[in-house]
Amino acid sequence: MTSNEMNTLIKNVLGWGHERGLHDTTDLKPQLVKLTEELGEIAAGVARDDADRIMDGVGDLLVVLINFGAVYDKRYGPYDPQTYFVESGLRTAWHQIAARTGKTVNGIFVKDEPNEEEM
């Protein structure tokens, strides 16, 4: 997928959310509840080894996250006015993890604890 295709999808999702009144508030809680609901759908798909259900949940989670970003921006202002909420969040996370060290234990990355000199 190209960045243009991704931008078009994000614009479409934002338009869809706006048309349905999801951006008419500064309260993040309703979208947070929906995010956890969609995460539960992914978990159910994993538990049932159901690839279609997992992918549906991932898509729904992204839709809710994009609309969560619109509410976040309305409440706090855009984190990075040049980019979409998801892109800003991903860039922030990447800068935090890029040089992180640690090890993978049972499929989960466990970061090294910073020593006193790094704090």
Walk me through the structure:
Helices cover 63% and strands 7% of the residues. With 119 residues, the protein is mainly α. The chain has a two-stranded antiparallel sheet with strand order 1-2. The longest helix is centred in the middle third of the chain and has 26 residues, at 51-76. It is globular and about 45 Å long.
Please, how many helices? Answer: 4
Distance between the termini: 39 Å
Sheet with the most strands: spatial strand order:
1-2
CATH C-level class is: Mainly Alpha
Low-confidence parts: none
Quick check: average pLDDT?
93
Biggest sheet architecture: 2 strands, antiparallel
- The number of distinct β-strands equals 2
What is the helical fraction, as a range of percent? 55-70%
How big is the Rg?
A: 17 Å
Give the DSSP E fraction (strand runs of 2 or more residues). Answer: 5-15%
The CATH architecture comes to Orthogonal Bundle
What is the domain tally? 1
Fill in the keyword field for this structure.
Helix Hairpins; mainly alpha; two-stranded antiparallel sheet; 63% helix; 119 residues; 4 helices
Topology record:
Elements: H1 3-19, H2 29-47, H3 51-76, H4 85-97, E1 102-105, E2 108-111
Antiparallel strand pairs: 1-2
Helix pairs in contact: 1-3, 2-3
Summed up, what is this model?
The protein is mostly helical. The protein has four helices and two strands, in the order ααααββ. It has a single domain, classed as Orthogonal Bundle (Helix Hairpins), CATH 1.10.287.
